[in-house]
Design goal:
The chain is built from eleven helices and ten strands. By secondary structure, the chain is α/β, with parallel strands linked by helices.
């Protein structure tokens, strides 16, 4: 794939669209406003040529602040050592006040988040009370299991900020007054907030150009990326400020033919390599069969060797039997082991009783 194609916005066209949007909102305003400073959000609608392969969140610092001082921001912090939750809250609130950061109105240490915002209703109430959430980068990976999926569904997931940096206050203010755009892998359209309707046309134009430039630098896609860019508010139609050209779709015939020729050459080379491998394999099998036949022909019968017996020497089997006989103990015949029967001695002067003769 080639490099990314640049998006060159026409400054005059962008400013004309901003003025038309402001005029449209002014003409549609009816009735008396409850608050004079009531304003709407101005957003950029970006349409891509294709669906991105991965989800990506791009942070965009803007030259002009797109949040008012009345919009409240919540900050999640790490528990400071040797401090309770309330002491950690007072510590960070004092630091924010010294640095002049007014938007951060609530500081929630990690321990208080785990204990006091465990219920579902408490999490939903926290989500609705603040327009933006920031978190200390030391506890950012621990937050998803405690804040729930509703923060991510409403695109209010906390942005990580390094509170250990020397310029942490400047970075905090930059992300609060900046914006983010979420490139989703489930569609080709994405939207980001770049200002308010009560801002001047020049300020909105500068924010639009800065947002598009940084987005094109950080997006992880190659080739033609952006198809169209529209400008809209909460209650207005989308006004086009950029449309991509279609030159990259009409590829020259010579270039297309060149690609087709390269594909055919690669296919022919692949087929030739496969044929060569098959021929080599077949030759190896034939050579093996010939070698086996040659070995069978050259093989001769080996005469059996008969051992020569000497007169004085005994066969090996007889020698083994004689050795076994010598090693075994001699068996005693059973007749010698039986006890002898003795007759009872007859008294003297008496003849032994015998059988009478008939």
């Amino acid at each position: 794939m080639g490099d990314k194609i640049r998006v060159d916005l026409d400054h005059a066209q962008v400013k004309k669209a901003v003025l038309a949007l402001q005029a449209f909102l002014k003409s549609n305003a009816t009735g008396k406003k409850l608050f004079r400073e009531e304003s709407q959000k101005v957003s950029l609608l970006v349409t891509l040529w294709k669906i991105p392969p991965k989800t990506q969140t791009i942070r965009i610092p803007l030259p002009h602040a797109q949040r008012t001082d009345s919009e409240e921001v919540c900050l999640f912090t790490k528990d400071e050592p040797r401090m309770t939750g309330e002491q950690t809250q007072r510590f960070y609130k004092r630091l924010l006040q010294e640095k002049g950061i007014k938007n951060v109105t609530e500081v929630i240490p990690y321990q208080i988040l785990k204990t006091e915002y465990k219920q579902f209703e408490a999490k939903r109430r926290l989500l609705g009370n603040y327009s933006m959430f920031l978190s200390d980068d030391r506890i950012r990976r621990l937050l998803p299991s405690h804040i729930g999926k509703h923060f991510y569904n409403s695109k209010k997931e906390p942005l990580s900020v390094s509170l250990q940096s020397k310029h942490w206050a400047r970075d905090l203010q930059k992300w609060i007054q900046g914006t983010t755009i979420r490139i989703n892998d489930k569609g080709s359209c994405c939207m980001t907030r770049i200002g308010r309707t009560d801002m001047t046309a020049d300020e909105l134009t500068d924010n639009i150009e800065a947002a598009v430039k940084i987005m094109m630098e950080k997006i992880r896609m190659n080739g033609p990326v952006v198809k169209m860019i529209h400008l809209k508010s909460e209650k207005s139609v989308a006004l086009p400020i950029y449309t991509s050209s279609l030159t990259h779709l009409d590829a020259p015939a010579a270039k297309q033919d060149r690609w087709n020729e390269i594909r055919k050459q690669n296919q022919r080379a692949k087929e030739a390599q496969e044929k060569k491998k098959k021929a080599k394999k077949r030759k190896a099998e034939v050579d093996k069969v010939d070698e086996d036949k040659k070995e069978d022909e050259e093989e001769e019968e080996i005469p059996q060797l008969v051992p020569i017996k000497s007169k004085g020497a005994k066969p090996k089997q007889q020698q083994k039997k004689s050795k076994l006989a010598e090693s075994k103990p001699a068996k005693i015949p059973l007749k010698h082991t039986r006890a002898k029967k003795f007759r009872r001695a007859e008294p003297k002067g008496k003849k032994p009783k015998g059988k009478r003769r008939a």
